[in-house]
Every structure is written in structure tokens, then in C-alpha cells.
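User: Show me a protein chain along with its predicted structure.
Assistant: Here is one chain, sequence first, then C-alpha cells.
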Amino acid sequence: APAETSKVQVHVSGLAGLLCTVLAEPAVPMRELKAAIEQASGIPAAQQRLVSGLQELGDLDRLPLEDKVDDIDITLVKRSPEHARWLFEVHRSWTRFLDAPHEVRGNR
């Protein structure tokens, strides 16, 4: 029988402390982890910015795990709903960036 992949406990904290803990496969893409965090915390995936150490994790990144790690700490910084909406718009068509408010254009 094939060896079962062990899951990793991901402790997700915000600026005010622990938000939730989710179980994830070690090679899970961040977009899937964001969906699990949304279910556990109620924070929409589009509003989540996940950080490990000093590195922001993009949707296609994987968990930054050391060998034989059972758990990892991730920090969640929440985007405003407006910022999340504009990111979606610009992702669909970069020209929408030209119509974005200054606050959104200035946040690089």
C-alpha cells in the first residue's frame, strides 16, 4: 500500500492573534489553502494576503516547509473588499488599472 501523505497543521494568525488552524497537504497551492482558511475563518479568499516570515505567498506558491515539519505559522493580512475587487478587475484586464482610485494604484 502506498504511504499516506501526512498533513500539516497550518496556524493562521492575524495582527490580533490566532484566527484558525487548518490541515493541509504539504504541497498545497496557496489558492487552495486560502479556500480552506475562508471556510474556517469566514474571511473571503480574495481578501487574504498570506505571509510566511518576510515573504508574501502568491496563489501558485506552496507552503514553505522545512523537512519533517508537522506545523507551520502563517500570517494573514486582510485586504479591504474594495482592494480585492480592483485586483480582480485588473486581473481580468490590466487597462482597468487606469480607472482605479489613487489609493488602489498607489498600493504596489
